[in-house]
Amino acid sequence: MTTKKKDTTHDKTFPAGSQSLFRGLQILEILSNYPNGCPLAYLSEQAELNKSTVHRLLQGLQSCGYVTPAPTAGSYRLTTKLVAIGQKTLSSLNIIHIAAPHLAELNIVTRETINFSMREKDYAVLIYKLEPTMGMLRTRAYIGQHLTLYCSAMGKIYLAFGPSDYVKSYWQQHQHKIQKLTPNTITNLDKMYEELDQIRQLKMARDQEENELGVSCIAVPVFNIQNKVLYSISISLSTSRLRQIGEKWLLNKLKHTADIISQELGYSPNQQ
């Protein structure tokens, strides 16, 4: 004798009239883990719903174009309609709207200059900046400024996490611009390769007075849903104050902020 599976969804609290909606969304989430299809029986088990209930939900989702039968008999999978919706959602994201609250919190906690940039071809473009809440140091950076990649912390982030062959081509194309701005500026390609290897390992970059004497900067990458680095966050401050505060404390706060923004862009650490 077959025991009818108990429908446990009634034990959960849903807004009035929305039980079927939540059940349908639950089915979509489960199916997203089975790109080649999931058998009805196993889907029912995962959802903790009766087979008849799951089948009815699948029929509704199929009629709307979100689910389709898989090649294996009795199995179902998601359609590309959900991909299209996801892409529309991503394209509607306003990065400043997403990042600003988290950058503001970082600014309050650290009380230092916070910079946020995006990569645009061979430059890091500063698209958001918050001034320090204490101290007199004001960096020369401004919103809209194009930062050179080889001598800025955020720039080196883009070099490190760009295509594998990008650094060499960048060096060749910009050889006439690569020059020592301070005694600390890296202008040797082999040394830059070593620097970038370390950046990839630590997921952070430093400007150790390479652009301006007396001013240091630490930067971290922001990853998107495709595991690409299109944005970077940095903290700029005087070298003396960096030594006073300690890099480790600032870096922890910086990475925490970058992790939150990355997650809001759809990134998952498990992608790496």
From TrEMBL:
<feature type="domain" description="HTH iclR-type">
    <location>
        <begin position="18"/>
        <end position="80"/>
    </location>
</feature>
<protein>
    <submittedName>
        <fullName>IclR family transcriptional regulator</fullName>
    </submittedName>
</protein>
<feature type="domain" description="IclR-ED">
    <location>
        <begin position="81"/>
        <end position="267"/>
    </location>
</feature>
<dbReference type="InterPro" id="IPR050707">
    <property type="entry name" value="HTH_MetabolicPath_Reg"/>
</dbReference>
<dbReference type="InterPro" id="IPR029016">
    <property type="entry name" value="GAF-like_dom_sf"/>
</dbReference>
<keyword id="KW-0805">Transcription regulation</keyword>
<dbReference type="InterPro" id="IPR005471">
    <property type="entry name" value="Tscrpt_reg_IclR_N"/>
</dbReference>
<dbReference type="InterPro" id="IPR036390">
    <property type="entry name" value="WH_DNA-bd_sf"/>
</dbReference>
<dbReference type="InterPro" id="IPR036388">
    <property type="entry name" value="WH-like_DNA-bd_sf"/>
</dbReference>
<dbReference type="Pfam" id="PF09339">
    <property type="entry name" value="HTH_IclR"/>
</dbReference>
<keyword id="KW-0804">Transcription</keyword>
<dbReference type="InterPro" id="IPR014757">
    <property type="entry name" value="Tscrpt_reg_IclR_C"/>
</dbReference>
<keyword id="KW-0238">DNA-binding</keyword>
<dbReference type="Pfam" id="PF01614">
    <property type="entry name" value="IclR_C"/>
</dbReference>
